[in-house]
TrEMBL record:
GO MF annotation terms: structural constituent of ribosome; zinc ion binding
Name the UniProt record assigns to this protein: 40S ribosomal protein S27
Recorded GO CC terms: ribonucleoprotein complex; ribosome
InterPro entries with a match to the protein in the record: Ribosomal_eS27, Ribosomal_eS27_Zn-bd_dom_sf, Ribosomal_zn-bd
Similarity section: Belongs to the eukaryotic ribosomal protein eS27 family.
Cofactor note as given: Binds 1 zinc ion per subunit.
Cofactor(s) the protein needs: Zn(2+)
Annotated PANTHER family: 40S RIBOSOMAL PROTEIN S27
GO biological process, one term: translation
Keyword Zinc-finger: yes
Keywords of the record: Metal-binding, Ribonucleoprotein, Ribosomal protein, Zinc, Zinc-finger
């Protein structure tokens, strides 16, 4: 068990930083990101926001790629994705 006094405050472990609120991290960073989603039918690639609040459809075949939830968007089964780089 890790006690609060056993942690180096200047170099916290990445697992702890990931679990913290976005404003309480050592360096503030958002939880959201952009991702490329590949359609399972026509293999077109569409850029989607991770916390999208609207339904995103494929431009080629009009298949639903992701649906909004209360937080992160839920990808349709069979769609592959990757996070966009900096």
């Amino acid at each position: 068990m890790v006690l609060p006094n056993d942690i180096d405050l200047l170099n916290p472990p990445p697992e702890l930083e990931k679990r913290r609120h976005k404003f309480k991290r050592l360096v503030q960073s958002p939880n959201s990101f952009f991702m490329d989603v590949k359609c399972q039918g026509c293999f077109n690639i569409t850029t989607v926001f991770s916390h999208s609040q609207t339904v995103v459809v494929c431009g080629g075949c009009q298949t639903i790629l992701c649906q909004p939830t209360g937080g992160k968007a839920r990808l349709t089964e069979g769609c592959s994705f990757r996070k966009k780089g900096d």
